[in-house]
Amino acid sequence: MSYSRLYNNLFNFKERTGSAFSGLWHYRPARLYLLLTIIWQIIAWFQARFIFKNLSSDLLVLHYNVEFGTDLISQPNQIFYYPFGLLLFILLNLIICLLFYRHKDFKLFIDLLVGGAALFSIFINLALLSIYLINFR
Q1: Which residues pair with 63 in a beta bridge?
Q2: Distance from chain centroid for Cα 87
Q3: pLDDT of 53-108, one tens digit each?
Q4: How far apart are CA 119 and CA 30, in angstroms?
Q5: What pLDDT digit, counting tens, does each position of 113-122 carry?
Q6: CB atoms near residue 47 (< 10 Å)
Q7: Are 98 and 24 in contact (CB under 8 A)?
Q8: The predicted structure's pLDDT at residue 2
């Protein structure tokens, strides 16, 4: 008996998730936000890989302050925390957005959460660009 209840719950979860993604995908600005977010996420991983591959020293400068100089130095593999954190942020915003798919202001949630994730991905790419400039120029 418990197997049928588990199967029923999994089937209901699949149906609700499918209808939530369908509602998200049929909203035209959401497609644009998701496309931009995916593109910026891929660019962030390529930037982090490029910085990691071309770094010649054992230390990586992650932050530079004009007044005090270098603030944050770490191991080179910590450059991958930026795109990984971005991926977690995107997934968290997408999950929160999908939880409210039956709400009357679902389109507002899409604009705020998925659009905010797209904007955050641009800022992460700018941060990776500044890390590149600090370490290689």
Answers
A1: 72
A2: 3
A3: 988 888 888 888 888 878 888 888 889 999 999 999 999 998 888 888 778 888 88
A4: 13
A5: 889 999 999 9
A6: 20
A7: yes
A8: 66
Angle at 17 between CA 22 and CA 25, to 5 degrees: 20
Q: Higher confidence at residue 48 or residue 64? A: 48
Q: Answer left, alpha or beta for residue 60, where phi above 0 means left and psi between -120 and 50 means alpha.
A: beta
CA distance 132 to 76: 12
CB of 107 within 8 A of CB of 27?
A: yes
pLDDT digit string, tens, across residues 14-23:
888 787 778 7
SS3 33: helix
Cβ neighbors of 6 (< 8 A, separation 6 or more) are none
Q: Which amino acid is at 125?
A: N
Helix axis angle for 81-99 and 115-136, nearest 10°, is 180
β-bridge pairing 69-74 and 60-65: antiparallel
Distance CA 48, CA 81 (A): 9
Closest C-alpha among 27, 31, 23, 25 to residue 102? 23
| C-alpha dist (Å) from residue 34 to 4, 64, 121, 133, 135 | 36, 32, 11, 28, 31
